[in-house]
């Protein structure tokens, strides 16, 4: 009699988890429905991370699923709700109720449709309390009234484990005094994206903050950011620089000053608008300014006075620079695109050669759809007087999306 081949269902649960985690979501849904033995594992993976577009059939199915089986709500750890319709009168009744039915949420992302603004208070979001919340991102509007601003900061203070806060679409500048003090409740905040000075540019600073994305900023504000946060930032992204009409644009810092003002910085990204002719935004950093001789750099490379003396010098971190653009190209003409790309590539090479030992790589955005990022970096080391070779590779990670949060 032939030996019976054991069923694959006898595989350890840990192995099934690995198999199912790499399976498409449609497959997981089918497994959860037809295989009782694996339904619990598949369901746990399927509900762990949820991405929905508001007012779609998939969203309605998810809402009904949570309503009919509250246990599934406890499985959701990360939810993103996109294209929220600000004109939908059901919002105040549906959205807060849904989020409160997901008690174990670690991350929440809420994105409203453009250009329909959705106010936090009007849909009851600021009254929600999520015990395990660590990441909150929303482009919803905060009303400029003192009561709304206070309610927003009360929401933040009620979530002391918050590690990541992304509210780059809001401008909160005039804070009540007690709101400024409420920042002590944000002791865990490490990653911040904002379009105003409400958290990152008012003393006392958040000592845990290491990753910052500032939008809608004046070039002069960067010096203020450096004075308050320069010694602790590991990643800095700047986008949406504001220009004052009639004021000439001054050249920014040289790389020596960047190294001195941000001694721990590992990643620096600057978003700029496209122009008809190739250019680099030099209002914050003059990227190609020649490096000064070592003996004349003086204080630029000295250790900050606040750091304790150490007999063993700590080498500075290697820096990744990303040049990205805030708007899409207005032309797809090949000759124009080639000129732009050649300019950026030449600038990347100059920056790398001029700052060998400090700049690890330069990443820039190509000007042909789908606008891939190109990473230029040295390969190998100099030997026998030979110049080290530079390599170029398409980079699908660095410089794209919210990479700055992980850098």
Describe the structure.
The chain is an alpha/beta fold. The chain folds into two domains: 125 residues, no CATH class; 174 residues, no CATH class. It is built from twelve helices and 13 strands. A 13-stranded mixed beta sheet has the order 1-2-3-4-5-6-7-8-9-10-11-12-13. Strand 10, helix 12 and strand 11 form a beta-alpha-beta unit. The protein is globular, with a radius of gyration of 25 Å.
Entry summary:
Helix content is 29%, strand content 18%. It is built from 12 helices and 13 strands.
Topology (SSEs and partners):
Elements: H1 13-21, H2 25-34, H3 36-48, E1 49-53, H4 57-68, H5 70-73, E2 78-84, H6 91-100, E3 107-112, E4 135-138, H7 146-157, E5 164-167, H8 177-181, E6 191-194, E7 211-215, H9 221-229, E8 235-239, H10 255-261, E9 267-272, H11 294-297, E10 319-325, H12 334-354, E11 359-365, E12 373-379, E13 389-395
């Amino acid at each position: 009699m032939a030996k019976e081949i054991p069923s694959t269902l006898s595989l350890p649960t840990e192995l099934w988890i690995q198999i199912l985690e790499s399976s498409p979501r449609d497959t997981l849904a089918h497994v959860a429905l037809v295989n009782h033995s694996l339904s619990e594992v598949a369901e746990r993976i399927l509900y762990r991370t949820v991405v929905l577009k508001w007012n779609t059939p998939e969203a309605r199915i998810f809402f009904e699923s949570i309503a009919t089986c509250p246990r599934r709500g406890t499985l959701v750890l990360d939810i993103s709700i996109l294209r929220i319709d600000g004109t939908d009168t059901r919002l105040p009744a549906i959205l807060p109720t849904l989020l409160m039915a997901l008690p174990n949420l670690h991350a929440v992302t809420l994105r409203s449709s453009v250009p329909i603004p959705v106010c936090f208070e009007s849909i009851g979001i600021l009254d929600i309390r999520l015990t395990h919340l660590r990441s909150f991102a929303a482009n919803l509007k905060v009303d400029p009234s003192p009561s709304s601003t206070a309610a927003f900061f009360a929401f933040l203070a009620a979530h002391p484990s918050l590690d990541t806060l992304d509210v780059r679409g809001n401008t909160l500048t005039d804070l009540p005094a007690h709101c400024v003090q409420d920042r002590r409740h944000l002791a865990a905040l490490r990653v911040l994206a904002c379009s105003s000075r409400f958290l990152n540019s008012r003393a006392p600073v958040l000592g845990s903050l290491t990753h910052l994305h500032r939008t809608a900023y004046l070039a002069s504000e960067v010096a203020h950011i450096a004075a308050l946060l320069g010694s602790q930032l590991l990643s800095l992204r700047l986008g949406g620089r504001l220009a004052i009409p009639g004021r000439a644009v001054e050249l920014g810092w040289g790389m020596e000053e960047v190294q001195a003002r941000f001694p721990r910085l590992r990643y620096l990204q600057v978003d700029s608008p496209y122009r008809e002719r190739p250019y680099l935004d030099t209002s914050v950093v003059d990227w190609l300014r020649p490096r000064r001789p070592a003996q004349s750099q003086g204080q630029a490379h000295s250790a900050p006075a606040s750091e304790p003396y150490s007999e063993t010098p700590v080498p500075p971190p290697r820096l990744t620079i990303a040049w990205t653009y805030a708007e899409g190209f207005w032309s797809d003409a090949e000759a124009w695109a080639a000129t732009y790309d050649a300019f950026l590539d030449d600038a990347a090479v100059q920056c790398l050669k001029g700052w060998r030992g400090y700049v690890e790589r330069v990443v820039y955005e190509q000007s042909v759809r789908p606008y891939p990022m190109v990473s230029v970096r040295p390969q190998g080391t100099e030997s026998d007087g030979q110049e080290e070779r530079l390599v170029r590779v398409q980079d699908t990670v660095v410089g794209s999306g919210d990479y700055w949060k992980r850098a």
